[in-house]
Structures are given as C-alpha cells and as structure tokens.
Design brief:
By secondary structure, the protein is an alpha/beta fold. The chain is 40% helix and 12% strand.
C-alpha cells in the first residue's frame, strides 16, 4: 500500500472559510428547529434588483450566450467595467485592462498567482478577510501581518507598514472599506500609503468591493490614483453593491501584461464566466446606483443600532465602522471569566458558547488573524439584529 499522502500538502494546508462555516452551522441549527440568529454571512439581505434579473432571463433565451465566449469576459462587459470605474472612482482604464472573473475570490487568487513567486512577501493589515491568506499561500507567497486594533479604528499607519517591509516585500494589500472591521481610510491616509508604496517600488493590490458602502462623513477613495499605473491591481465585483453574491461575477483591473497573464491562467482554470451572469453584471454596472443607495440607508440604520447595543454590553468595546456591513468588537475583557460553568480562554471558545447558549452565530477573531474579537454582520433584518444582540448582551452579562 502506498505511503504517499492522499491529499497534496499544498491543498491540505488550506483552511475552510470560517465565515461560510459559521453561516452553514447556523443554517443547519435553524433547519433543525432552533431559533438561531446568524451574524456570520457576508452578503446583503436584499434581492438582486429586478432589472438585473430580467437581463439575465433574456440572456438565457438568447442562443448567442449558449456557447463559449472569450475567457477574459464579454467585450461589452469589460468596456462597461472600465466606464464604471471612471464613473465611480475617477480612475481611467481601457477594456483590455479588465479581466472578468468568477466572483471576487477568483480575482483575489489570480492577482496573487500572477504577481508572486515563492518567497515573495505580502504586507497584509490584520484583521483581514479569511481568503487573502489562502490565496497568498497557494501562490507561494509569504504573508506578513501588520496588526491593528480598536484603538486606531483598525487603521494601519505608514510607519507600521514601513516597519514590516523587507527586501523580500513585493506587494502591499490595501482594503478600504474593510472586511471584517468596516474601517475606511481617509483620502489623506490613502494618498500617504500610496505614495509610500510607490516610493519603494511595491505593487499595490487594492480590494474595492465595498466602495459604495460608506457612512457618515467617510469617503471612499481609490489608492490607484496615488500609485503608478503599472504597479497597481484593482479587485472588485457586483456582489455587494448590487446584492449579487450568488451570481459570481468579479473582476481584476491592472496593467495589460498582468491582465493578459491572469487571463491565460483563467483560460485553463475555468474559461469564461457564465454568460448569463455576465449579462446580468452588464446591466448592473451600466445602470444607476439607486439600488445600493436604498441598501446603504438600511445598513446605516442597522450599523448605528448594533454599535450602540454592543457598547452597552460590559466588557465589549466596539469602534464605529464607517464602511461595509460589519462591526468588529473586542471581547478580550471577557476571556477567562466564568460563564454558564465554563471559562472561555479565547474568542473562538466564547463564540461557540454563545452559539450553544444564546443561539446566536458570530465569527471569532481567530478567523481574521486577531483573536479576542468577533465579527458581526449587520446585513440582516432590523428585528433579528436587535434580538440577536440582545441575546448576546443578556448572556455576557452573566460573566464573572
């Protein structure tokens, strides 16, 4: 019998998506009849706008879209994405600088696979979204964490980034608005980080998937304006802005040589994205932003409610998130305290206890590189939000 491992070391090292795992467990418990409220899902709780759905229905009936199309995306969609980028962030690109991908995750993977050689270092601000480490690892890169906390609103400074830079650093990952923290860099801070990256010849990979979900006085600005065009890759998609997480359409924008190389990779990995979904995305990016304006109003209301309620819980500290649809409170003061006969030593154990005792699902900070925190999505109905946080507060009030 062979003694060789059945699964490659490369794939064995990949962790399951913690956010999807928490959401799946919550849904399974709910299906079993338990009144679970889930704060784990990273998707809008709104339906895809009707005009987008109708465009997909028409596409499904059109024999033109029953065949293979270019691996890099429908030409009309690539042009529309270029136009949308100019409209929304003032950044000018051509259609041949756009690669349409199977969701934002494929754009993340292909960006790092195209840019990194084994041993190349990527500066990643923690807390970070769970997929980034796995994509970097699969590309042979080395992740270097730049850790932030609630005292700075989870924002990294140029000084922190510079302290982490080495001769092996090739890429800095910039995410604003942030998943999981909701942090948004100011225009001045964005410009400063961009200038620093340019000064040291670093690539910037910027994930702008939450660009339209900012609140209060916060303002989204693309770091691409402050980095040479041949050193920046932009990641984006229709998932969050248009409530289209299940349609799986994202994109990568970058220098032509990078886009060509990533397209070659995609031609062998998946070929073209579903044509029906691409036509739906074309309708989305070509249309106005009224749908996201309505979502943003609801998210803003929920954001304020969640932050207020979390900060009323003894031992919980939650800075105000200014973007996306997540709150990221610290629960470090509660760790090690007795609660229902147990003493959770870390946020993962505390999250498990909350799920079992309060029937509320949250994602622990271990998933995002910073133990001692929770991520809670406020992309759920107002009543469920209030009920869920109330349950958490009632349970945690028992900690001694």
């Amino acid at each position: 019998m062979s003694t060789r491992p059945r699964i490659s070391a490369r794939i064995s090292a990949i962790s399951e998506s913690a956010t999807l795992a928490v959401d799946a467990k919550a849904k399974a418990m709910k299906a079993a009849g338990r009144p679970v409220i889930g704060f784990g899902a990273g998707e809008p709780d709104f339906p895809t706008p009707g005009y987008i759905v109708e465009a997909a229905v028409e596409a499904a009936r059109n024999p033109k879209y029953h065949k293979y199309t270019p691996a890099g995306g429908l030409p009309e969609l690539r042009q529309a994405i270029a136009d949308k980028t100019a409209r929304d962030s003032g950044y000018q690109v051509s259609a041949d600088q756009v690669l349409v991908t199977n969701g934002g995750k494929q754009a993340v993977y292909e960006a790092f696979a195209t840019l990194l050689d084994p041993g190349d270092e990527v500066l990643v601000v923690a807390p970070y979204w769970t997929t980034y480490p796995e994509a970097i690892k699969l590309a042979g890169g080395v992740q270097v964490d730049v850790v932030t906390d609630e005292t700075t609103g989870y924002l990294a400074s140029v000084e922190q980034l510079e302290a982490a830079r080495t001769e092996r650093t090739k890429v800095v990952l910039f995410v604003s608005p942030s998943n999981p923290t909701g942090a948004v860099y100011s225009p001045d801070d964005t410009a400063a980080i961009g200038r620093w990256a340019a000064e040291h010849g670093l690539w910037v990979v910027t994930d702008e998937i939450y660009e339209h979900l900012v609140y209060g006085g916060a303002e989204f600005t693309s770091i691409a304006h402050h980095v040479p065009a041949d050193q920046v890759v932009i990641l984006n998609g229709v998932a969050k802005t248009y409530a289209m997480t299940g349609w799986r359409v994202g994109w990568l924008i970058g220098p032509k040589d990078v886009v060509k190389a990533a397209t070659n990779l995609q031609s062998h990995a998946t070929s073209n994205v579903s044509n029906v979904a691409q036509v739906a995305a074309l309708a989305a990016v070509s249309g106005d932003l009224s749908a996201v304006a309505e979502m943003r109003e609801a998210f803003d209301r929920r954001r304020k409610t969640m932050v207020r309620m979390l900060n009323e819980i003894p031992g919980v500290v939650c800075p105000e998130p200014l973007g996306a649809f997540y709150a990221y409170p610290s629960v470090r003061e509660l760790l090690g305290k007795e609660l229902r006969g147990r003493r959770p030593a870390n946020s993962a154990e505390l999250a498990e206890l909350i799920l079992e005792e309060a029937e509320v699902a949250v994602v622990p900070g271990e998933a995002f590189g910073t133990p001692g925190y929770f991520r809670l999505s406020y992309a759920l109905g107002d009543d469920d939000l209030v009920e869920g946080v109330s349950r958490i507060g009632k349970l945690l009030a028992e900690a001694r």
